[in-house]
Specification:
This protein has 201 residues and is an alpha+beta fold. The chain has a single domain (8-189), classed as Beta Barrel (Hypothetical Protein Pfu-838710-001). Helix content is 18%, strand content 42%. It contains four helices and ten strands. It has helices at 19-28, 48-53, 105-111, 176-189; strands at residues 5-14, 32-45, 61-66, 74-79, 92-101, 114-129, 132-142, 149-150, 158-164, 168-169. Strands 1-5-4-3-2-6-7-9 form an eight-stranded antiparallel β-barrel. A hairpin with a 6-residue loop joins strand 7 (132-142) and strand 8. The radius of gyration is 17 Å and the shape is globular.
Length: 201
């Protein structure tokens, strides 16, 4: 059994006109929901170009901070390359490392040898369904002057991520297959309204 922690996920997107129908169906199938508003910063290693030149994909770091609850700290996490489609054809399964950061994530990441690459805000809704979290959001761009989010246009695509809420280890008690089945169940529930699929990020 692997010592890695994993994320199991499916992804989708839809137009604003379908928001109400999709919200209703997800709400009916979830135990709880809350507003989602967060900022995510993506960092890449200083030597990421060297990695690419030598044919290896650099490991990106991501810092995420929830904005709906004041005083929430940063969470720093990184994903490794998704496992091959041959091994997991139905869902994206990728090793997932998470670190809680005390203080400023940007300083912490730069001390680890990382540069800030991009920053986005996400605003929408987060639903809990058993061990899964379903996030529906629109991306908000950053105003270069104020560094504050600019509300998304009405016609901005909505993105959906269905995944385990916390990293999981592949053990006999919590096999990955259990989580793959759980995300596939959501895929089936949304059929006809929303196409959820695996994605090689």
């Amino acid at each position: 059994m692997s010592s890695h922690l994993y994320e199991v996920a499916l992804f989708g997107e839809f137009f604003s006109k379908d928001l109400k129908a999709i919200m209703n169906r997800i709400s009916l199938q979830s135990e709880s929901s809350q507003p989602l508003h967060c900022v995510e910063i993506v960092f890449e290693p200083y030597d990421s170009q060297h990695h690419r030149d030598t044919g290896t994909e650099p490991v990106m770091l991501r810092a995420r901070k929830e904005l709906t609850e004041p005083g929430t700290g940063w969470v720093l996490y990184s994903y490794m390359k998704p496992e091959s489609v041959r091994v997991h054809p139905e869902a994206t399964v990728r090793p997932w490392a998470v670190v809680q950061v005390i203080g400023d994530a940007v300083t912490f990441a730069s001390a680890l040898g990382y540069n800030r690459r991009s920053q986005i805000y996400k605003r929408g809704y987060s639903f809990r369904r058993g061990a899964l979290v379903i996030q529906m959001f629109q991306q908000e761009q950053v105003d270069p002057k104020t560094q504050k989010p600019i509300p998304a246009h009405a016609d901005t695509l909505w993105e959906v991520e269905v995944k385990n809420a916390t990293p999981i280890r592949n053990t006999q008690e919590t096999p990955l297959s259990q989580y793959i089945d759980a995300v596939l169940e959501v895929q089936l529930l949304m059929k006809g309204l929303l196409d959820l699929r695996r994605q090689d990020l």
